[in-house]
Every structure is written in structure tokens, then in C-alpha cells.
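Reopening closed ticket. The problem is back. First fold of the pair:
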Amino acid sequence: MIQMTQGHQHVLTITPTHGEEIFVPVDVHQASKQADEKRLRNAGASARFRLRKKQREEESKAELQKLENQNRDLERTIHELQNRNKELEAEREFYRNDRNRLREIVARTAEISGGPPSQGLRHIVSLSR
């Protein structure tokens, strides 16, 4: 049987079949102290976990931002290279047409002069066609 004695002290009274009663002080707050300590440890662990999680999220956001910027830069470079490629293709076509026009002029000039075109010139004219 547990009973209250002076103040808040709890005492367990053991009554044997022979002899006097035995009074044993009982600390009913020990379990409560242990639970409080456990809650404090858990709260600390939870706080550390939340902090680590927040740091990981911030690192992930920074990495995502970095990759998005890198992707934007690469897309801009692709667009610039595609435009440069179109310019070079147009320039190539211009010079190709100019070359062919000049070949035809040279071929006609040889025909007008009355002489047979040179062997190298025939080869050049056949390549342009």
C-alpha cells in the first residue's frame, strides 16, 4: 500500500505477517524525470534532423539553380552556333555560285577565242556541273 506522508513524499508500507511494518520511500518522479530527459534528447535530435534537412534542401536548390543557369547558357550557345552555321552555309553558297559563274565565264572565253580549252579547264568545267 502506498500512502502519503509529510509533504509530497510517497512511502510504500509493507506489512509482514510477523513483525513491524516496513516503510520504503518511493520516488514516483523518477520515471517522470526519465521521460523528460528522453523528450529533451528527442527534441534535440529532431532539431538537428530538421536543420540537416533544411541544409540539404538549400544545397539542392542551389544546385538546381546552377544547373538551370548552365542549361540556359548552353541553349544560348546552341542558338548562336545555329545562327553562325546558317551564316556560313549562306556564305558558302554565295562563293560556290560565284565560283561556278566564274568557271562558266572562263569556259566561254576559251570557246570564243577559238582555241580548244586546256585539259585542266575541261576538268574544272566538268566538276562545276
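Second fold of the pair, where the issue appears:
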Amino acid sequence: MSEYYDEPELAGYEPHERPLRSARTVHLMRAAVIVGIVALVLPGILTTYSLAKATAEAACAASVASLSPSARGSKAKFELFGPGGVGWQCYTVGAYGGDKKPVAPLGLIPSFPTQTVPSVTS
């Protein structure tokens, strides 16, 4: 053996003609990997959504209480094409004769909406 190999452990290796694993084993491994990834990611998505929904409902209830005291309740919804753009939207329930009126956009990550205080000029 006078030749020099960069990888001496591969000196006598000859590749096989057939695949290492059967097609059934490959499909089972792919399915197991997909199920594992879904099992890791899905709880995080569900937790994030439930936390955002709870935050949006609390911020909406506070906004409706301060901006529309005649309303009987509030409702927070996630909308792609809402009046305030993409994100959580806050609506009154039962105010103004029972109709639903938009109160404030809460954003993609819901937070209490900022209110501008009118300046008093004298």
C-alpha cells in the first residue's frame, strides 16, 4: 500500500449498488420526523395564540369601558382585513342599539391602544 489516502478508514471501501434502507423504512422515518416536528411546534403555536387572545380580550374590555360606557360588552377578534389593518380588532357588543362598532385596533401583538389626549389651548 504505497498510495497515501486522506481518509485511511475508507481505503478498502467500495460503494454498494442497493440502498441502505428499504423504501418502507424511509417512509416510516419521514413520517416519524414529521410527527415529531409537529409535536414540538404545535404546543408553542397554541400557547402563543391563547395568550394573545387573553391579552386582546383584556385590553378590549378596558378600552370599551373607557371609550364606550354604554356598551354591554366587548369582543376581540383577529382579522386580516379589519378596519385597523392586520391584527386584533376590538368591537363593542350591545352599544348603540345593539350594533357592533369598532373601538380600537390592538395590533398583531395585542396591547392597550394608545389614546391621544386633546390639548387644551387657551
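Update: turned out to be a display glitch only; the data is intact. The helical segments are 23-67. The chain has a mean pLDDT of 84. Please close again.
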